[in-house]
Amino acid sequence: MSEMKGESVSSTIEAAVRVETKRQPLPPRERLQQVFDIRDLTAIYGSKPALKDVSMEVYKNLVTAVIGPSGCGKSTFIRCLNRMNDLVPSFRQTGTIRYHGQDISGRDVDPVAVRRTIGMVFQRPNPFPKSIHDNVAWGLKVLGMKDNLSDRVERALTQAALWDEVKDRLKASALSLSGGQQQRLCIARAIAVEPDVVLMDEPASALDPIATQAIEQLLHELKGQYSFVIVTHNMQQAARVADMTAFFSISRGEEGERWGELIEYDATEKIFTAPSDRRTEDYVTGRFG
Amino acid sequence: MSAVELSPLHRPQDRLRRRRVFNRGMEALAWLAAAIAVFFLGVVVWSVAQRGWSQLNLDFLTKSQVQFEPAVPQGLANAFAGSLVLVGLATAMALPFGILIAVYVNEFAPRPIRSAIGLTLDVLAGVPAIVIGFFVYGLIVVAHGQSAYAGAFALAVIMLPFVYRATVEVLALVPNSLREAGLGVGAPRWRTTLGIVLPQTIGGVLTGTTLAVARVAGETAPLLFTCSLAPNGIHWNPSGAIQSVPVAVFELSDSAEPSDHARAWAAALVLILFILVASLTARWLATRSKRKIMRAGR
Ligand SMILES: Nc1ncnc2c1ncn2[C@@H]1O[C@H](COP(=O)(O)OP(=O)(O)OP(=O)(O)O)[C@@H](O)[C@H]1O
Ligand SMILES: [Mg+2]
Question: Contact at 8 Å (CB) between B151 and B240?
Answer without folding.
Answer: no
